[in-house]
Every structure is written in structure tokens, then in C-alpha cells.
Design a protein that fits this description.
Blueprint lengths: L3 H10 L2 H26 L9 H35 L6 H44 L1
Helix pairs in contact: 2-3, 3-4
């Protein structure tokens, strides 16, 4: 049977190196899919594949991770769009999608970071309640 507490403990107790490697592999795989998808199939909506890495980095490293993750995604998308167009001067639709998508990634990452903070506060309050209950 699935137990969320066991899974969260495994993820929480992983070493810093394992977390960074997992997130880097996730970013690289999504980046390769997006870059080659945009170049080969001219399908620019593949950037939505970056949602899982943003969630993962935001949950693991909070706001700092969100900023680093979004910056990495925007760099990858800049490379993909520049490679596809052959120039840094993109059509307005591509530029609008790039800026709007970047904003969505920031909002998503900050939302996940906020929920992580709320979860940690709830865990801390629960631990204090258990501790207070033991003293009674």
C-alpha cells in the first residue's frame, strides 16, 4: 500500500548530491526533448515539459531553486528558439510565448515553494503538539 509519509521521508532524507543529480538529469532530459522537438517538429508548446523539473527544484530548494531553475529553463529555451530561427530577433508570437511562459514558470515555482513552506510549518506545529502532549 502507498504511504505518502514513507515516500516523503525518502525524498527528504536523500543527500544533497542525489537531489542535485536527480534535478539536473530531469532538466537535461526535458531540455533535450524540447530543443530537438522545436527544431525537428517546429512544435513550440513542448516547453510545458519543464513543469516537472520546476516543481521538483522548487520543492527541494524553495525560492532560490525556483530562480535558478527558471533561469536555466529560459536559457535552454533561448538556445532552442535562436537555433530554430537562426537569429536572436524572434517573431512577436515567439517572444510573447517566451515571456509569458517564463512568467508562468516563476508563478508555478513560487507557488510550490510557498506550499512547501506551509507544509514544513504544519509539520513543525504537529511536532510541537506531540511534544506538548507528552509533557501533560
Amino acid at each position: 500500500m502507498y504511504n505518502a509519509r514513507v515516500l516523503s521521508n525518502v525524498l527528504r532524507e536523500a543527500s544533497f548530491r542525489v537531489k542535485v543529480i536527480t534535478i539536473a538529469v530531469c532538466f537535461l532530459l526535458c531540455g533535450l526533448i524540447v530543443i530537438f522537438g522545436v527544431h525537428e517538429y517546429h512544435y513550440e508548446s513542448l516547453a510545458a515539459l519543464f513543469v516537472p523539473p520546476i516543481i521538483l527544484v522548487s520543492w527541494t530548494f524553495k525560492q532560490r531553486g525556483t530562480v535558478i531553475g527558471v533561469a536555466g529553463i529560459l536559457i535552454m529555451l533561448t538556445l532552442a528558439n535562436t537555433w530554430e530561427r537562426g537569429t536572436l530577433f524572434w517573431p512577436y508570437a515567439t517572444l510573447f510565448g517566451f515571456l509569458f511562459g517564463g512568467g508562468i514558470f516563476v508563478v508555478e515555482g513560487l507557488g510550490v515553494s510557498f506550499f512547501k513552506h506551509i507544509w514544513e510549518v504544519a509539520q513543525h506545529a504537529e511536532a510541537k503538539a506531540v511534544q506538548a502532549e507528552k509533557h501533560l
